[in-house]
User: Which sequence fits this backbone?
């Protein structure tokens, strides 16, 4: 699903900052934990601000629930995770830093940004509690 910010329209309406709150389905391929799946949509709460040079700052959080077998004791478990999301978008062709996102035709597509934010919030494993002390099957 395309989630975006229509920068041109925001500028025309002198609407230079705002909040975006929406949900979307988490992509299963972002999840690399055996026997674990998304058990809720990803909830995004973002604040955006359009700067004078048409670059756009977006920051907020993404959160989602994961459900499946505890990576240590194999008990079924479900936990919620929240991560910070922060990005800087510059119009294509404009000078930006290497880590910036670019957008064209006056519209920001948040797809890649949201994907990165979900990946960043993704835990390396799902455990039933922080103190789960069942032996770990991976030697680490
Ligand atoms: Zn456990």
Assistant:
């Amino acid at each position: 699903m395309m989630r975006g910010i229509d920068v041109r329209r925001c500028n025309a309406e002198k609407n230079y900052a705002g909040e975006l709150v929406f949900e979307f389905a988490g992509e299963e391929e972002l999840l690399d934990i055996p026997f674990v799946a998304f058990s809720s949509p990803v909830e995004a709460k973002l604040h955006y601000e359009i700067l004078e040079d048409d670059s756009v700052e977006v920051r907020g959080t993404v959160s989602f629930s994961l459900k499946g077998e505890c990576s240590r004791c194999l008990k079924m478990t479900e936990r919620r995770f929240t991560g910070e999301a922060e990005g800087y978008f510059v119009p294509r062709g404009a000078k930006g830093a290497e880590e910036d996102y670019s957008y064209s035709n006056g519209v920001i597509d948040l797809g890649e940004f949201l994907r990165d934010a979900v990946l960043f919030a993704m835990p390396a494993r799902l455990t039933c509690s922080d103190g789960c002390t069942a032996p770990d099957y991976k030697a680490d």
